[in-house]
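User: I'm curious whether this sequence folds into something compact or stays loose and floppy. Could you predict its structure so I can see for myself?
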Amino acid sequence: MIPANVLHSPGEHPFFFDGPTASLEAVLTMPETPPGTHIALLGHPHSLQGGSMNNKVVTTLARAFRELGIPSLRFNFRGVGQSSGVYDAGLGESEDMLALRSQWETLYPGFRVIYAGFSFGAYVSYRAAAQSEHELLISIAPAVNHNDYKAFSPRPWYIIQGDEDEVVPAAEVRAFAAGSEPPIPVIRFADTTHFFHGKLLPLKEEIMRIVREQVLRS
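Assistant: Here's the prediction. I'll summarize afterward.
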């Protein structure tokens, strides 16, 4: 279960929670200052390709939200780390994310949700955002060449994409975003590969800028 009474306990709090079909390993990251009115739910890269909640892009997301004074929840998808269950192509994983959101809301009602995910985790968070109220969706290197991002149209939605991504074709991401209605803003990172090697600090700064402008209005 999500640790109770931790709103004033900065740091990382590991725990397990029950999804619809599996027990899942998770971490709650609390900011140094008392949180305001938002919580971020984060998704990690592909479960069958070494992805986990400790991926550097995902922990960069957690740090960005922590510096903004926003708690974040991230978890190992089914079959990853100490999470039970088996990979479910993003469908069951998004159900698990929604279950985690529901458990947070039971403990701490009134928080507004930001979804953010990287690579396969972008698809998981996209599906969760499409099925629930949210303040913002941030997709980092979404694999539009492998997953169906046309079934839903969650808004507001921002995409961050490296121009030299060797896994997700950047041109396809840009074309998808431009063809959406309304078009999805794409923040391009020049000379940047899929895992944002050497670009994690600028990535954190860009995430913080988006959240400040779109959610915190500061």
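Summary: The chain has a mean pLDDT of 97. Residues 91-107 form the longest helix (17 residues).
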